[in-house]
Amino acid sequence: MAKRIQLVLTQDVSKLGKLGDLVDVAPGYARNYLIPQKLATHATPGILKQVERRREQERQRQLELRQQALEQQAALEKISSLKIAKQVGENEAIFGTVTAQDVADAIQAATNQEIDRRGITLPDINHLGTYKAEIKLHSEVTAQVTIEVVAS
User: Fold this and answer.
1) Given pLDDT bands bounded at 50, 70 and 90, which one contains residue 6?
2) DSSP H/E element including 137
């Protein structure tokens, strides 16, 4: 049985690993596919140092993004409530619904911060009233905002 070869991936390879991962593979797989396709290189001490440095830079970048998300969370929680005006029909039912884009626009007007609408989770809003929306700012940081739907 041939021994395994250690390689560092230079690109993401499905079912094997991501860019910069250190993997053990069969010699034939390395020699016939990964190295000729420039998907991996041999794991030398210099390359391992580069990979470690890249990982540290990525970790620092993630920490900065998390810190920015915490600052956004603090700013959003200072807002008592966002008012969104909609046309009203019978029984205080609104025409249409309140969308994540409506909430993102209201936040933009109130705090001058851009929020990605895809990170906003809303309950079904079909009537006038007060609702809670959850906003995902980072994989570890979420904020809650009170939305008040009023008649226009």
Assistant:
1) very high
2) strand 129-138
